[in-house]
Amino acid sequence: MLSLASRSLPAGSALASASRNGTVQSVQVRGYAAPKGPAKIQKQGFVNKGKKKKFIQTVDPNKMKRIPAFKPLTANQLKSEIFHEDVKTELQLPVFRPDALTESNALAKVMEFPTQSNLINRFGVPKNLNIEYRILSKSCAVVRDITLTALDKLDAASASSSKDNRVVLTGSSGCGKSVVLLQAAEYCAGRGWIVMYVPRVHHTVDSSTAYIYDSRTRTYLQPRFSWQVLRRFLDVNTTLLQDLKTTKEFPVERKAPVQAGSPLTDLINVGLQDGSLAPSVLSSLMTELSRQKTYPVLLALDNFQALYTRTTRYRDPKFEAIKPYHLSVPRLFLEYASGKKTFARGAVVGALSEGRADFVTPLELCEALGLPFPRPAGPYVRRVPEIVDYSQGLQKLAVPEKLSIDEAASLFDVWNTDKALHSLPDDDLFMSKYSEASGNARAFVWKGLLATLTS
Amino acid sequence: MFNVLRQQARAPLRRAYATQGYVPPAAANNIGQSMIPRFKPRPVSPTFYTGLPSYFENVNTLESAITTSRNILQNLQLLPLPKFARDALPESTPVWKGKDELGFQVETKLTTARYRRLVGLLTQLEEFRKIADTAGCVEVAESIGDVTVLFQRENRDAVLAGGKKKPVQFDKYGRTYTIGRRKESSARVWMIPVQGKSQKPAAAAASSVPSVQAPLPPAAEVNESQNEATSPDLTPFLSPKPLAKTEEPTEVTATNIIINNVPLIKYFPHSLDRERIMRPFRLAGLVGAYNVFAIARGGGTTGQSGAVALGVAKGIVAHAPEVQPLLKKAKLLRRDPRAVERKKTGRRKARKAVRIFFFSSCSASLMLTFY
């Protein structure tokens, strides 16, 4: 049948060859149906429609047929970094080492904290910095003018008693007090100081940790918090503490006492083994550290104003609020901060936290530091005498409200390199967010750069 | 007999007087005023016999003035003017009196048609005055002007000046003072150009025109480097050229915005409000060029931020006029007329309607409305 059909067709026709190959398809051609011409495309762009203008944008139907089917690209063709989400970029930053911290080298540069010091890993950081360091690939901070000022002060303090070196970092919310404190702690750790850094001091007064009344000291002990402090302190300062020896015997119930002349690590281990001994071990440890002159000691406290609150969240059996100086750990910190107890060599540095509503900077502390108190406080407003006493002799170190443009630019660079920005990283974004934030560091990063999706 | 009586009775009615006859001189003395024949006085103007004498008097005066001035101008060969000369004539800005005022002047209550006729004549006269003035015929122009000025408003200059926006004033420190409003809020905004550390504070002429500036002393460094080759550069011949040219880093300044004595970040916690204020700077490309101090009163956050943004946009236009079409296109110079819609009677709020429930008995008294 096919052969018969092929003989009737002209020799050179496609249909003939197709029929010979066996691939012929019958094509019906109706003469009365005129073939469709090319589709008419109406005028594109803005077209006057009476008084108004209408925008017409239609796809050319003639062209539509020519678009081939979409096919996925091979892995070799996907060269842009947008497609490589699994590849994590790591920031390449200079390390925050004491020898690298000169004005020409370090000012307005972001430096990463060294991992050898173990400070951040063991002591932790304040909550907002924690979130930041989770997002960033490296724990880092920008070195500002105030940082270098603080470090110079600490250098000067390393030789003298902590009674003369009790500094409080002040400034408005988000200006960078916690970061400067962290930098100070890291610097001192790098310089061979013994560092006790407590990033969340408010946990000692917000009744988040266990407390128990001790009739001997007539204070409420905080065994769990003390244990944590000892644990972290030992981990960070092990090598230095092994060199230091106790001067007094430390009695232990139903066990051999810690002899005088034994390394401090032994003393700490006693407290770590028995949690109930931790508060007294901590107290003795601090006493030993205050006596020794081998190494300077830094006591760095963040959220410092929480110690000076009039009432803590703890309640006594009569359901009256317990005062901070009646709790073991806050009392210990207050004593060193007020100069009642001192380190032979070293400093006490505190950083206020202004953004908090739970523990606002109290009137007594404001007056001691010369800060403006937001509410009217004339002579008829009561100042708690104990708190006034504990806030004597504190020096203020004001952190500037604004980042300088160079410092802000370094921060911008870091966040951009870490692919945290959602918007195009041009100078318009930088300058507008910097101006909107009025130079405030936290507002610039968190409310500006990371909270924006602009074209 | 009756006839005679009748005649006698009728006689007084049939006296014949000689009205304009001869009067002997002696009889002319001691004649009362009523005896002197009176002639009707001639009216001052022929328009006396029209219904609106004063109006038509004015119309005639103006028409005769037009005729006279036309003749003068034709004699001076200023009329008819070719098209190019007519197009080249300056714009005339007469401010004719209104219908009521003009009506008072012509002592007639003017209808629109009559007022238009007067104004048409005045316009024609003003046209001739303009031609004469442009041609330099001072006396002709002045004489026509004396006529037209009677029909113009007293406060002509004030009327012409009104409706135009007053230009923003700069004070001695180069600050602008502008006002912005939005909803119930108003903001007073002072803007001053930021002076970098390299610029001297004495540069108080802080307009956007850089060409009109006193030459700065050589110690001061200007941001836009002006390379002036005053003397031939001999360093290639004397010493090796440095491999890399050390460029002076451009100083970057930031815009500081303070509202009600509080920095922007504290006054407006919401990013939308801050971005609204920053928008005119971003579009103009002038972020970091000006510092802003604003006092905002009334309304809430959106109103105050919108008011400050408008004040800022006006201030930017005052400092940098070339940016005006751009901000206008972006609708940043427009006082947003949207305001809270009033509550209407019969509705709970501006639009929120009252719910009506009908009960099955379908009585109007059972229709419950909830307010």
TrEMBL record, chain A:
It holds the Pfam family DAP3. The keyword Transit peptide applies. The keyword Mitochondrion applies. This is Small ribosomal subunit protein mS29. Belongs to the mitochondrion-specific ribosomal protein mS29 family. It comes from Somion occarium. Keywords: Mitochondrion, Ribonucleoprotein, Ribosomal protein, Transit peptide. The lineage of its organism: Eukaryota, Fungi, Dikarya, Basidiomycota, Agaricomycotina. It is found in: Mitochondrion. Its main location: mitochondrion.
Automatic annotation (TrEMBL), chain B:
Pfam families: Ribosomal_S9. InterPro entries: Ribosomal_Su5_D2-typ_SF, Ribosomal_uS9, Ribosomal_uS9_CS, Ribsml_uS5_D2-typ_fold_subgr. Residues 223-233 have a biased composition (Polar residues). Gene3D superfamilies: 3.30.230.10. The keyword Ribosomal protein applies. Residues 203-239 are annotated as: Disordered. Keywords: Ribonucleoprotein, Ribosomal protein. The keyword Ribosomal protein applies. It comes from the Eukaryota. Residues 203-214 have a biased composition (Low complexity). Belongs to the universal ribosomal protein uS9 family. This is Ribosomal protein S5. It comes from Somion occarium. The lineage of its organism: Eukaryota, Fungi, Dikarya, Basidiomycota, Agaricomycotina.
